[in-house]
Amino acid sequence: MTNRRVLALLSISLVAAIALPASAQAAEEAALSFSPSPVGFGKTTVGAEAQGQAVDVHNVSGAGVAVDQALVEGVDAGEFKLTGGNCGWIEADQHCSLWVSFAPTGAGAKAAALVVKLKEAPEQSVPLSGEAVPVQLAFTPGSHDFGIQRVNRGEGSATLQLFNVGEAAAQLGSVGIEGVDRNNFWTNGGDCWGGRWLQPGESCNAQVGFNPWETVAYEAELQASAYGTTFGAPLSGFGGRAQVEPASNPIDFGPVPVGSAGPVKTIVLTNDGNLPGNFFIAVIAGGSVGSFQLIDEGCTAAPIEPGGSCTARIRFVPQTMGSKTARLALFGEDDGGTMVMLSGEGVAAAPEASLGAGRASPRVARDRHRRFAHRKPLFAGRARCHSVNCRKALRSRKTAAAG
Fold first, then answer.
1. With CB atoms 3.0 to 4.6 Å apart as the test, which of 112, 183, 331, 364 could cross-link to 337 if both were Cys?
2. Mean pLDDT computed over 167-180
3. What is d(CA 280, CA 324) in angstroms, rounded to the nearest whole number?
């Protein structure tokens, strides 16, 4: 190379050096340092947002730099968030901070980069990573059967545990009852309240209750939701009631003469329900209570199991003429107890002539007594003395004969 050409190249270099501003030279040499680097978020539940991290940005160059923009870029950029920062002009050897978080919308490993774009200098970046896992909640036990519970008592209750069986923390949305019979079950949530965080393996308790209205089967589900996913435990139960009743109702005693004791009727009451019947008192009540007598009963002696029976014996004794009604009332644990309607008719007493062929009317009997008292012969087979006067006459006759 000739001396003339060398001198030309040196001249061009010198002119370029003089034309380039000193600040531009410093910017070309600028470099940033990030801490932590890379930025990792570990396992995070899909739909949740991991706790944000502060990324320290250190200007390790010998000159100040101006930050034009900070943003997240990459394939999974939408899974990370830049939530704030205070990086603008950074003097040499000075620091600023950028805050980022991980909010995955789908499961799997995620990767992106936090990029800091500088004015008049190359951009700088730090890798971001995280693993998204699905939310997993489970009730223990997985279902609950309340069995047979008395209707309208609200006595059935149970406690179910809700566990986070996933790999990352999860925040509860709501806990409640759903299903066709949801109005017959209830929950107060216990300590499984909406907004509570459950760490992996942690649990909370949900209290549930059952109140049947009828003697039928009921079904519903205890549900807990988180991030749009619902987890449930089936609930079931059956309404129970004792149904102790006679085969027919009312019980008719028919006509009975006033003042006379009619026949005793035995009433059989059978428990056709699905729970034992418990009665503590049985009485005749209402209407013509004085015309019916409870002779004895076995319905208050012990519980009447489903399919079992008891008896009550009642006599109809009408006090006056006309239709008579009352009821056999049994009171116990069941709502309303049991009522057996009783009916009968009081009728006039039958004439004495119809009392039987072996007995005479009052007029004939008085004639016999008179004939006997005056020592007049009686017809054969009629020498029976029924009245007080007749017996006195008989004693007087015996005394006279002895004298």
1. 331
2. 96
3. 26
Beta-sheet strand order (sheet of 292-297) = 244-246, 264-271, 309-316, 292-297
Token representation of residue 83:
């939530």
Q: What is the pTM of this model?
A: 0.69
367 has a pLDDT exceeding 70: no
Question: Quick one: three-class SS letters along 41-60?
Answer: EEEEECCCCCCCEEEEEEEC
- Cα separation of 181 and 209, whole Å? 12
Q: What angle do CA 271, 272, 276 make, to 5 degrees?
A: 50
**235, β-bridge pairs:** 144, 220
- Domains, the chain, ordered by start: 26-133 (2.60.40.10), 137-240 (2.60.40.10), 244-347 (2.60.40.10), 361-402 (no CATH)
In this predicted model, what pLDDT tens digit does every residue of 215-229 receive, in sequence order? 999 999 999 999 999
Q: Can you spell out the DSSP letters for 80-120?
A: EEEEEE--SEE-TT-EEEEEEEE--SSSEEEEEEEEEEETT
What are the C-alpha distances in Å from 187 to residues 156, 175, 219, 238? 12, 8, 14, 18
Please indicate whether residue 101 or residue 386 has the higher confidence score (pLDDT): 101
